[in-house]
Amino acid sequence: MPEREWDNQSKKVVFPREKWFQECMLSLFSKRQYLCGVFALFFGVIAVVAGLFSTVQSFDHNNRASLLNGDHASAFEKRLDDNMAHHNVSRQLWAAFSYVFFKEGRDGVVIGDDGWLFTTEEFDYPKGFQENISKNLSYIDTVFDELSRQDINLLVVGLPSKAETLSSELGAYSVPSYRQGLSKRFENLQAPHIIIEGSDGFFLKTDTHWSPKGAENVAKIIAEKHLLNQYNFSYTIESKGVKEHEGDLMRYTVSGFGIKPDQLPVVEGYGQSNDLFGDANIPVVLVGTSYSANTKWGFEHYLKKYLQADVLNMADEGLGPFEVMKSYLTSNEYESNKPELVIWEIPVRYLPIKFERKSDD
Q1: Which of 17, 91, 166, 259 has its CA 20 to 30 A from that of 133?
Q2: Mean per-residue pLDDT for 72-99?
Q3: What is the spatial distance between Cα 38 and Cα 96, in angstroms, rounded to a whole number?
């Protein structure tokens, strides 16, 4: 397969133009079983055009009142929706076409070998790349100073890049040089930290996130640091089988054609403090991203089990690790519950992303 390069400006993969035709022809004739998909795509496009044409032809364009008050636009949109029943099908067919012939999905995903999917965030070069890293590391140390003044321990947990961990599954892709070794930047922190190295089974194939196995391994590593006093807290985790999981990266491609959902173990946990006169404060606070907030991965469960302590989960989805920490430090929970330990989970891919903060943060 021709070697491909990541083009940061277009957020796409490119490869030499003279090899493009060869790539297409080889794919076309070596994958004859997918030719029917091409014809289906062709007829899907025809269906979309026909639906649009039917909508335009059947509409009353002479009603000036409706044109002026917006009724015309609303009615046209509804009629178009009714005539575009094949729209979603066509989008799926186009996604299938892109995967079969170009091994590409929609913007947002990089498709590797054997159905492995990767987020383009691990290939991007955001504006202010190096400056953002420096400022974000500085903010981590600022938080460390703030918590230290309150006699609260902080542990920064740097999570690895999926693309770097699974570089052997990238196929024709490679991690750009500016994205390699970003985890080492955590070594510049004054704040106590651990840098997690990904291992076999650490990540899900179709998702940006870790697997329950990866989450459990990290919880074990944290517990081995012995950062807590002993708490008379027991926690039990039960397996509830396995379920099919379509990862968040599958939205950018199409299932089938070698891309299959993950098989996700399902766990549930329950526990209680056995100390009748124990401190009412919860000793551990978890701050971070969807790695910690989403219960599917079970990180909170595993922390409670291996730390043998209760955990207040203040992580949130879709905000990034720095915004979530900022919210925690201004929350009622922080004012009313001073923990012994704050665990701050930070995926390395967030280090180069600009975090908006006030000058006094």
Answers
A1: 166
A2: 50
A3: 9
Paired sense of beta strands 153-159 and 193-195, if any: parallel
CA dihedral 312, 318, 322, 323 (to 10 degrees): -90
The answer to whether 290 is a known catalytic residue is yes
The answer to whether residues 278 and 306 touch, using CB atoms and an 8 Å cutoff, is no
Which of 193, 209, 245, 301 is flagged as catalytic? 209
- Catalytic entry in 124, 161, 183, 207: 207
Q: Which token pair is 218?
A: 């990290």
pTM (2 d.p.): 0.74
Assess whether 124 carries a catalytic annotation.
no
Tell me how far apart the alpha carbons of residues 109 and 98 are, in angstroms, rounded to a whole number. 12
Residue range 15-37, pLDDT digits in tens: 444 444 445 444 444 444 444 44
* pLDDT at site 76: 47
Residue 51 CA from chain centroid, whole number: 36
Q: Which residue has the higher pLDDT, 320 or 41?
A: 320
Active site residue 114: no
Three-state secondary-structure class, residue 282: coil
3-state secondary structure of 9: coil
Q: Please state, in angstroms and rounded to a whole number, the distance separating the CA atoms of residues 143 and 138.
A: 9
Choose, from 290, 292, 301, 316, the residue flagged as catalytic. 290
Most distant pair of Cα atoms in the chain: their distance:
80
Answer yes or no: is pLDDT of 8 > 90: no
Per the structure block, which two tokens stand in for 346?
């930070």
Q: What b/e readout covers 119-150, taking b as 16+ CB neighbours within 10 angstroms?
A: bbbbbbeeeeeeebbebbbebbeebbeebeee
CA angle 227, 232, 236 (to 5 degrees): 95
